Amino acid sequence: MDEIINKVAQSNLLTFDLEDYYVTGERMALDISDWLHEGIVLREKEFRDKAKNYDWEQYKDAYVALYCSSDAIIPAWAFMLISSYLIPHVKKVVIGNMESLETSIYQDILNNMDFSTFKDKPIIVKGCSKKSVPQNAYILAMEKLQPVVRSIFYGEACSSVPLYKKRKD
């Protein structure tokens, strides 16, 4: 009887799991539509008063997505004003939804990573994750990995999808 050989275990394929880089910490969203007159008009004095008297401490050490759920046109200074109050309390603040926030967090992580350890190696980017890994994080990973690796696959070692292979010159 032939011995069953686990070729996956013997391969030099490295797994790149974005979930390993997930930053823990509370994620919160702040909708400023409630700060607007009738949900659509920004009145500067009222807006500034609301910001000045708001309980910013509730966002302590959180990652915050700042957005407006109404169709109001919000001037840039309004988001800047709110962020000036948030910054001393939070780990990060972005304008956008929760996916934008997660993308920004991953962007910071991936932009500061040293990818040289993956040089000329075959890489598999793990697919399924239990944590909130945004689709953009996979694109960012591809952007960082592709210039240095030999090949990139997606999924699991036993059933992967080939995505990139460095050309032999």
Notes on the protein architecture:
By secondary structure, the chain is of the alpha/beta class. The chain has 2 domains: 79 residues, no CATH class; 64 residues, no CATH class. 30% of the residues lie in helices and 21% in strands. It is built from 5 helices and 7 strands. A 4-stranded mixed β-sheet has the order 1-5-6-7, covered by helices on one side. Strands 2-3-4 form a 3-stranded parallel β-sheet, sandwiched between helices. Helix 2 packs parallel to helix 3 and helix 4 runs parallel beside helix 5. About 4% of the residues have low confidence. It holds the Pfam family DUF2480. It comes from Imtechella halotolerans K1. InterPro entries: DUF2480. This is DUF2480 family protein.
Question: What layout of secondary structure does this protein have?
Answer:
Blueprint: H1 7-10, E1 14-16, E2 27-31, H2 44-53, E3 63-67, H3 76-86, E4 92-95, H4 98-111, E5 122-126, H5 135-145, E6 151-156, E7 159-165
Parallel strand pairs: 1-5, 2-3, 3-4, 5-6
Antiparallel strand pairs: 6-7
Helix content: 25-40%
Tertiary shape: elongated
Task: Write down the Rg.
Answer: 22 Å
Counting DSSP E segments of at least 2 residues, the number of strands comes to: 7
Structural class: alpha/beta
Q: Note the total helix count.
A: 5
Largest sheet: 4 strands, mixed
Terminus-to-terminus distance: 43 Å
Q: Identify the strand order in the major beta sheet.
A: 1-5-6-7
SSE order, as H and E? HEEHEHEHEHEE
Low-confidence stretches: 5-10
Overall number of domains: 2
The mean pLDDT is 92
Share in β-strands: 15-25%
